Request: fold
Amino acid sequence: MPNLLVKPKGIAGRVHEITPESAGWTYVGFALDRLAAGESSSGETGDKEVCLVLVTGKAKVFVDGEDFGELGERMTPFEGQPYAVYVPKGSHWQVTATTALELAVCSAPGGEGYKAKVIRPGTHPLMTRGKGTNTRYVTNIMPEDDASAHSLLVVEVITPGGHTSSYPPHKHDQDNLPAESFLEETYYHRLNPSQGFAMQRVYTDDRSLDETMAVEDGDVALVPKGYHPVAAIHGYDLYYLNVMAGPSRIWKFHNAPEHQWLFTGI
Reply:
């Protein structure tokens, strides 16, 4: 199995390029471009669908020649909700940065009958999950109840310093609906201040997979299976962007039974 912690390749250009082949799985792809004002990134979706997330900065976005205008407003991922653009299979996209830009390219198998669209801040409400030191703030970019995509589920989460997230531990690695869905997942992590770190554990019931990682600003964690809780350490807020996909576009998870009692308090 590939290393579950993926470090960025440099500080500019395409710093992440995670494919199903490199991850050793089937559905999810994730890339990240860091561009200066005036620089561009582009791609052909082929048989995949793509969600372009403007993690930071502003850009002009074109899909199959259609001009979506200049999008983006936040300069850090900790400043509110993002702009994103859905791009269906069989399409060409181009993004030209008008400020320093961090662009996430989230991909999964595409389907027929979907159209390109802009996903603006406020399209889906900011949600608060958990209580106490398990409180975190969730923005669904492409949730399962939005029928405008074939495979992709995309969400971002802010976890304050000293808090846990993706916790109590849950997993979604069995294609066993309606009890549980199979979804591969990536976590793109950012820290504020950037010199911080967070902890993420990925493990299965039988511990055949059991890795604990110190994730730093700009790292990607791969979750092929198992439980995957995250802890933000004191003094450093954590942002992560999740990409999920599998045979069904449904997020149905299974909680670790030994930690089920925690739900009575949160």
Notes: Helices lie at 20-23. Residues 177 and 252 are 8 Å apart (CA to CA). The first helix runs from residue 20 to 23.
